Amino acid sequence: MRRLPPLKALRAFEAAGRHESLKQAADELHVTTGAVSQQVKLLEEFLGVDLFKRLNKSVRLTEAGRAALPLIESGFELLNQAVTRAQEFGNQNLITISVAPSFGAKWLLPRLELFRKAHPDIDLRVDASTRLVDFSYEDVDLAIRYGPPKERGMHLEALTDEIVFPVCSPRLLERGKVFRQPQDLAGQTLLHFEGRADDREFPGWGHWLGAAGVASLEVVNGPRFSMSSMVLQAAMDGQGIALGSSVLAADDLRAGRLVRLFDVSVQAQHSYYLICTRNTLNRPDIQRFVQWIKQEMTAGQRDSK
């Protein structure tokens, strides 16, 4: 058998070729740009041919690179299929799910017991993360992410839309404060969510105040948080008024830990997506989990209306 180049070098080239960017490949693989460049050079030396044209601040595939890239992509997909097929002969009833920390804490965790009671033969492992998942290398079966999916060649399924609206602790109302109309927010402390770059399009107070017709209202800018769950916790602690989402705040509203203040809401631009490989989707245990989470999401949508 002909000697093959190192797998890491092939992976670096595949990512760099797909993005036509060493930096984006490095971000995806969670290594430095220099490490990707070194692996690509190693592969080029192994093959005896240039795979990229190095430009000032970018790279472009050469004719050899363009010819090799789709075959290497297919090779990684075949490897993934082989691993999935082999796992079919082992213990399939462990599902590893990658979810954003706030979604895991506020939505998935409170419902895990419901899933376990309905499917006692399936174990779940939850990995809290917001990074892009490389299903070819990581021990992850499913990912649930908010926003437009960046994964290519995957099964992508929109789970639910999301609306946001003001919420606060009932203790704030017990102090005698009355909120009958959006103008009553004047002088109140507003809590803010400032997520990663991926979340910048998530509706903030500016969107909601504009939708409510009080864009110029004078309010007190309160703390800013990088996680939605922290914003909701601060609201429950009485530190101010937050924008709660129909997904993440649902249980706190139902339990009375938070109260919704007005009927005005803003539709989030993106949805929550379930992401997995097409081969993984064929597993019976995965199909049962997907069916369950879709049913729970649908029920939550009905309750939030």
UniProtKB/TrEMBL annotation:
Domain of life: Bacteria
Domain HTH lysR-type: 5-62
Residue ranges the record marks as coiled coil: none
Keyword Transcription on entry: yes
InterPro entries for the chain: LysR-type_TF_proteobact-type (IPR058163), LysR_HTH_N (IPR000847), LysR_subst-bd (IPR005119), WH-like_DNA-bd_sf (IPR036388), WH_DNA-bd_sf (IPR036390)
Molecular-function GO term, any one: DNA-binding transcription factor activity
Keywords: DNA-binding, Transcription, Transcription regulation
GO biological process, one term: DNA-templated transcription
Family statement: Belongs to the LysR transcriptional regulatory family.
Protein name: LysR family transcriptional regulator
Species of the source: Marinobacterium aestuarii
